């Protein structure tokens, strides 16, 4: 009997590092925008929207392709872990909804207090998200490595990336690769389809550096430390 290769979860750690870093910096980014600076409002709001969309689709991919399979295959231990994941995803979803509401008001309004309200919404999201990412890494990822095949993991990644426009792929991978070990990045790229591999490998780092300069004011924003 052929044993299918198991999921390689290192790219999950890479994605989690993006969420920790970018949401960790987001409230201060909002507060740094001067009243009346419409261009900076646009840049920062589009950045928060991008990272929020990445997080939404990331969780959607897990909900569709990972948790039902873990429940089917992992017994009581996996069922308990999935219950925790579901509860945390729901809590994060509510916080993200508040962020989106405040983001729209900030982007379209003129009251300086709307920036403070958005920053506060981001600060409410951050501890809920940070706790979830750590619990998922400690509780769910070992079960995923045990029960989910590489092919099924690929389905989850495809679903997670479905909301990313093709022209944003080098950027989003550059965001993921920024704090990851070079050997991990190289191995993740090697597993991509050839047509994507050629584009990602040559453009990701530069795309993120240019983007970070525009958003954060530096091509090398503060690193938070990858859990790899």
Describe the structure.
It comes from Streptomyces shenzhenensis. Residues 9-144 form the Hemerythrin-like domain. InterPro entries: Hemerythrin-like. This protein has 228 residues and is mainly alpha-helical. The protein has 2 domains: 10-164, Up-down Bundle (Four Helix Bundle (Hemerythrin (Met), subunit A)); 166-219, no CATH class. It has 9 helices and no strands. It has helices at 10-32, 38-65, 67-73, 75-108, 113-147, 150-160, 169-177, 182-190, 194-216. The longest helix has 35 residues, at 113-147. The radius of gyration is 18 Å and the shape is globular.
Beta strand %: under 5%
Largest sheet: none
Rounded to the nearest angstrom, the distance between the terminal CA atoms is 32 Å
Radius of gyration: 18 Å
Number of separate helices: 9
For the secondary structure, the number of strands is: 0
SSE order, one letter for each helix or strand: HHHHHHHHH
- Indicate the CATH topology of the largest domain: Four Helix Bundle (Hemerythrin (Met), subunit A)
Using the coordinates above, name the CATH class of the largest domain: Mainly Alpha
Helicity level? over 70%
Please give the domain count: 2
Organism: Streptomyces shenzhenensis
Protein name: Hemerythrin-like domain-containing protein
Pfam families: Hemerythrin
Domain Hemerythrin-like: 9-144
